[in-house]
Known about the structure:
Layout: E1 5-12, E2 23-32, E3 35-43, H1 52-58, H2 62-65, H3 71-82, E4 86-89, H4 92-105, E5 115-117, H5 118-125, H6 134-141, H7 151-171, H8 174-184, H9 191-203, E6 213-216, E7 219-222, H10 242-252, H11 260-274, E8 279-283, H12 289-304, E9 308-312, H13 315-332, E10 339-341, H14 351-357, H15 365-380, H16 395-402, H17 421-431, E11 434-438, H18 439-447, E12 458-461, H19 467-475, E13 477-480, H20 481-491, H21 499-509, H22 518-550, E14 556-560, H23 563-567, H24 569-600, H25 607-635, E15 641-648, E16 657-662, H26 665-672, E17 679-684, H27 694-699, E18 708-712, H28 718-721, E19 722-727, H29 738-756, E20 760-763, H30 767-780, E21 787-790, H31 798-807, E22 811-815, E23 832-835, H32 846-857, H33 862-879, E24 890-894, H34 898-901, H35 905-910, E25 917-920, H36 922-932
Parallel strand pairs: 1-4, 4-5, 8-17, 8-18, 9-11, 9-12, 10-11, 12-17, 19-24, 19-25, 20-22, 20-23, 21-22, 23-24
Antiparallel strand pairs: 1-2, 2-3, 6-7, 13-16, 14-15, 15-16
Amino acid sequence: MSRKFVVVDLETTGNTYEKGDRIIQISAVTIENYQIVDQFTSFVNPGISVPPFIEELTGIHDDMIKDAPTFSEIADEIYGLLADSIFVAHNVPFDLGFLQGELGAAGYRNCVTESIDTVELSKVLMPMSTSYKLSDMSEMLGFEHENPHQADSDALVTSELLLFLIENIRQLPLITIEKLTDLAHHLKSNIALLLHSIIQEKRMKLEDLPEALEVHRGIALRKKFQPDTVDNNESVEYPSSMEEKQKLLTSFVNGYEKREGQMQMMDTVYKAFVGEKHAVIEAGTGIGKSLGYLIPALYYAVKHHQSVIISTYTLQMQDQLLYNEIRRLKDIIPFPFRVSVLKGRSNYLNMLKFEQSLTDRDHSYDNVLTKMQILVWLIQTETGDMDEVNFSSGGKHYKERMKHDGWFLQKEKDPWISRDFYMHARHLALQSEIVITNHSMLLVDIEQERNLLPDSQFIIIDEAHNFIKAASKSLGKKIEFNAFKFLINNIGTFDKNQLFAKIEQIIQHHNIVPKVSTSQFDNLILRLDAEVDDFFMLLSKWIIKSERKLSQNVAKHQVRFTEEMRQERDWQSVLMCAERTLDFHKQIRLGLEDRLELIKEQKEIPITERAFVEEANSFMLEWLTLGAKIKDFMLTPNIQEVVWMEGDTRTLPNSIGLYSEPENPGGFLKEHFFSDKKSVVMTSATLTVDHSFKYFLQEVGLNNYSLMQTIIPSPFAYDKMAKLMIPTDLPEVRHTKTEEYIEAISGHLAAIASVTDGRMLVLFTSYDMLRKTYNLMKDSGALDEFIMLAQGVTSGSRTRLTKSFQQFNKAILFGTSSFWEGVDIPGKDLTCLVIVRLPFSPPNEPIIAARNEAIKKRGKNPFSEHSLPEAVIRFKQGFGRLIRTETDRGVVIVMDRRIDTSSYGQAFLQSLPNVPIERGPLKEIISTIEKWL
Length: 933
């Protein structure tokens, strides 16, 4: 490409030029013939002060820019650089928006007509990247990035990224680049220009397709991996003695230190399998839990020719097993073995649907970008698991359409059957000694009797403290107003050219006459749409009625469906409306089923129609499930299920959802899971309360079972690594108004943060309290030099917020719910953990209230049977965020004085490892922290 690229990065005083923010530094790198040839960099005097947040982020302060030129003084040089070039930036709208504003103010017209956004280009060419933030990408690709958030360093790294991505395009098969180019005309930046120039280059020479790739039906993709046949005829003996285990591990793991706890765990798992017994193992942090169960599982699987299923709660844990631990095992285990991952069918891409979607005249940005991502991903993926792709939020709708739902038409006629991702994953699973899956898949497979997983009698449940939560969600149901309306819009009346109209075109093409005419079907859709609006409006009235009764100053309300409520006269109008809704839903279902069956009977169905019929069948499966849920929620309630609705009173009826969960999921697990398996081993770092598994076993339905129980403490010297501190000058949370309590803890947090230099994670039990504390501390200005990040307030996922927290020197992270577990911030990035309140679940939550009622009926105390042990386990999980490795060091501060003043406070303290505890007023606490850290 003969044109030059100018790669620009700016540092500014804020996000919006129109609101008065200005440039404080600019850097422009010139690239010609794909080589960096020049770089221009200058500070810019913006005429305003640099805000503290920007100073912390960039390191640029007022003294650095006071003698710098104003933008108008360098505008001519910048204009000359940009003229006749392709403008490149990592987020073009931001950088170009500021430049155009500044150039316009200096009297220059816009000279940028073509641009390439490296964020957009990275999304296309690196679809499996977990982040597209420049600092994350430079770290992942190994670029030298000396000063992130300074324009000269960022512009240079963006240039390197551009050149790397251009080289990536060159490595793609020509057929893939051609398909990408067809789609790229609908992107926001001029990526099509770049792709077209590389097509011209590649057409000049003949290229062979790489050995690992193939082209099928005009789409390039990676060939399916076929594992080697494993023939373990020789005798495989488990290393039963400590010496044998030590020899096995030290032979292959450099610097392996003997961990007696890990070896004890290996023996427990192996004995459980051999003895065909269930087992629970609490394995403290630092044990090496994953290898502790993987090694005995492999020895047992190979020796007895049995597959072992390993189930995890999080994708993060699944990836850790597959990409870290299994790779290590390949070096440790002295015999060959096979491992595979199997997820639900809908996680896999349906290639027939995808192929046909490429011919759609759908040019919406999110769909175009997602199609391009998938085209590149198909060259990289060995699994076809769509969770590998970092889809945009808008792209997730397209992903739903492309998911695999089995076959409605004869699968042998699917031209992609020989390359079907789901069939391949299942084939690998059936051949593997170890199959990794997730709790949700495991439970759905049992509940719906799908038999998708291999029929294994030996299961390991990792992250077992979440198994009951996963069971509740998997066995639960939900109907949300917006999702219901979305499905109706997907069918669409005939004039909307959605699913219904497309089906009509097919039946007209085949001269099919359905039972329900087009006009009748149209009318049914309109009537259902109106009935759904009425139904949710009636539910809204119940939420408003509940709000008035409770007089609580919270927007989101939950209303449990009780027997008393169902008997009220006003409820009858809701039931009648639900019956009408279900009736229209059923008539639409029958009309769609009739049409699809008539199409299925046709002798010849073109490929384009075949792909659409499969998509329509996926929709039908969702539609059927929806009808069953309406019936279960409203007309045939199950007394063993807790049903409730919730909604935000500010946005009714749009925010309304109906939900249900089993009151006692443990009963289902006992009958349909544990009773059917020879050995299930459950493990986690947090399963016991006061050194007893009683609560956990009761929850999962195993309280009367004879099973193996093992507690393996952490090898860490907690007494030298951590301190627990309890301030005595805070008010009692039970006897204080929320606003007063927030004011008190905010003052303490600010004082502690100044001593710890931030590096503080603050755990809340309520999002409302988190938000109010964050706002109060932000507005006070006491911590202006700190970066404050808050879940649900600061944009970004849990992973994104955690990475941002680690990036800044003086950072405070406020988290609730998911931050109590599964967050790893090792080393000096986290030295102070604050627990604001003891983590009791609100007793008025529908599922908690129902379970408490059931416990009372059994003559037990709900607080001691459920609320307290649940809170203690949560507390242990929160505490576990601080010490993640043997070199970590820090303090835990519990601000809830109930830990000392209540009769149950000792239950929390006794659940912790052996840590020194100090009590005192804030002044003493701060003095101790200063000395300790």
